[in-house]
Amino acid sequence: MTDRPRLTYAPTHRAATTAVRGGLMRSPHGETSEALYLTSGFVYDDAAQAEATFLGEADHYQYSRFGNPTVTMFEQRLAALEGAEACRATATGMAAVNAALLAHLKAGDRVVASRALFGSCHWIVSTLLPKFGIKTVFVDGTNIVQWQQALSWPTNAVLLETPSNPCLDIIDLERVVALAHDAGAVVMVDNVFATPLLQRPIEYGADVVIYSGTKHIDGQGRCLGGAVLGRKTWIEETLQPFIRNTGPAISPFNAWTMLKGLETLPVRLEAMCRSAARIADFLAGESAVTRVLYPARKDHPQHALAMRQMSAGGTVVSFELAGGKEAAFRFMDALSLIDISNNLGDAKSLITHPATTTHMRIGAEERARLGIGDGLVRLSVGLEDVRDLIDDLARALAATGLARAAE
Fold first, then answer.
1. What percent of the chain has pLDDT over 70?
2. Distance of CA 214 to the CA centre of its chain
């Protein structure tokens, strides 16, 4: 098949249907599972077709770095779930963040970003962009006054994540988007923790949505991948030339894996959110736990806002243990079911210590500003029986003496 596929889902389909059927394109063989086009290049009927393709006058695949049928199906399905006009997939989530920013910005431009970003995103904004003459300003994402002050100047891009990693801060998308647009900025939202099923930033006016497909979209710890979604004109005229010429392309195999992952995303996410809520409530009753952060709990600082923007609390619970790093390490090492890993969104429950892993390189001072203490751990809740997960957490607290020490 040489022509680019057409969308086969109906805009009226609900999320679970779109997750299975969106972007579906069958070859003449009529396969039930989407085809994996494991090819680097494509052939042409004749030299004239090749010329027309390179001129942009023929709709034909050229090279898998530019586009591939399997990748297209993944892009179209994710766009349908997100409610976006277009999508481009990338090799990793960080490639997506980097491509979105560098495709849009130039020397002399100005970026305003929420301070609570994933460690590598923070590095791009704080370290990489200034090397290219791009001015960067950080704000506390939950402080609307700081947004107002920072966006009182002309701005080219705004980058934020909500819920944030790892403290699950919630940013008021509607208010920040309005301020950013008044300043002339394109708003880019890292929506990894919420996924398109719990929150759709475009509905609040965001221009660009970014994902690490490595997380919930794959959902089983198999492949790396990312995606950038937005308006068709911005994707095709601004982002696509950057991706085409710099090469952060996703492999067809990884795109196929992500495509199949989307099929089960609704059922996985529902189960994981339900378990996460129960675990958050359990942890809140433990004397050794000094703080529990979960957006669906009423004691979360932005609970009301979270429940306006999100349909559930998500799959991640962050909590702080009395005793700092030593206590956190003893607790994590005592777990027998939950694995220590810096990934999240997996079918297996995973736990990490942000201060020494994902956010180590932003420095102690910045971590303190973000509320990332030495006793903070981040738990990504998987698909195990929630009773087994709670038993594992309780045993680890008891085995390390944390519960007794705090009583």
1. 96
2. 9
